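> agent: user asked for a holo structure of the chain below bound to NAP. Plan: (1) validate sequence alphabet, (2) canonicalize SMILES, (3) run complex prediction with ligand conditioning, (4) return tokens. Step 1... ok. Step 2... ok. Step 3 dispatched.
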Amino acid sequence: MTESLHILVTGGDGQLGRSLKHESVHFPSFQLIFTDLDDLDITNEKGTVTFLKERHFDAVINCASYTAVDRAEEEQDICHAVNAMGAGILARASSKHQIPLIHISTDYVFSGNQRSPYSESGVTVPLSVYGRSKLEGEQLVTAHAQSAVILRTSWLYSEYGSNFVRTILRLCIEREEIKVVNDQYGSPTYARDLALAILQILPEVIHSPGVRLFHYSNTGSCSRYEFAEAIRIFAGLPCRVTPVPTSAFPTAALRPPHAVLDTRLIRSTFGITIPRWPESLKLCISRIEK
Ligand SMILES: NC(=O)c1ccc[n+]([C@@H]2O[C@H](COP(=O)([O-])OP(=O)(O)OC[C@H]3O[C@@H](n4cnc5c(N)ncnc54)[C@H](OP(=O)(O)O)[C@@H]3O)[C@@H](O)[C@H]2O)c1
């Protein structure tokens, strides 16, 4: 009989945490333990160290994050505490107990001024408080973890919480016309696909020392406008989607205009296949509509 692996998921009530919960049914030998802010605040170093000491974990998946990109411009302290310091605390605590860590980061570490997809060695120039805090989180994980994988992802959506897909679906139902920016490009990523990939690579990650960085997004890319139009079409909604420039929608935080991630390294290293974004979007919308 194979022994089950005990895996701690922080930020378990967020959209990636909830996606892991769903995908873990395909991995009966994994026992996932989900915590969120109330059970385990990753900014509390003493509490985090004690939590990991009192239980036995074979791996930690850090889905805890401050993700309010625009609000972060005002709430710099809390954003930095969770995304930078919290990541460092978790890396130190995991390392102290020899537990491998999977940490999630973002395409917002890039300026988005590069036309070709960003590889893992691409130069990082975050444009926002959120992006800077996530980059510092990566640096602290790299400095303190003994065994870790940092996964950068982009434009995450799911059937849970608030995200671009759910917002566009709601607006398309409420309005006759919506305006969406057509000069920001990226790769939409279905959180269930990312969750599945995390669980697929986990056994190999557990046995690998050192800190490695990978990019994971669904393959293919589009503008925000093309993404919104696909959402409308797949959901069969009659609303008109009109393309507008970013200047028509000023936001507190700057977004990278062209942050497409190159995912070849994670695919070749772990032999995983990644669905194209339109197929995954269709699947997500069909699940939302059920
Ligand atoms: N969403 C995107 O478009 C996107 C794009 C690229 C990368 N990412 C990255 O992907 C990862 C998962 O994102 P997500 O969309 O699943 O985020 P999410 O839905 O916002 O979930 C994050 C979770 O972390 C919790 N949390 C906040 N502070 C915490 C703390 N101090 N200790 C423990 N838990 C805490 C949040 O609780 P509260 O809700 O109570 O605050 C929430 O449940 C993050 O690392 C994010 O940076 C996201």
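> agent: step 4 complete. Summary for user: Residues 10-11, 13-16, 36-37, 40-43, 63-67, 82, 86, 104, 106, 134, 153-156, 161 surround NAP (CB under 6 Å). The chain has one domain: 5-162+188-220+259-274.
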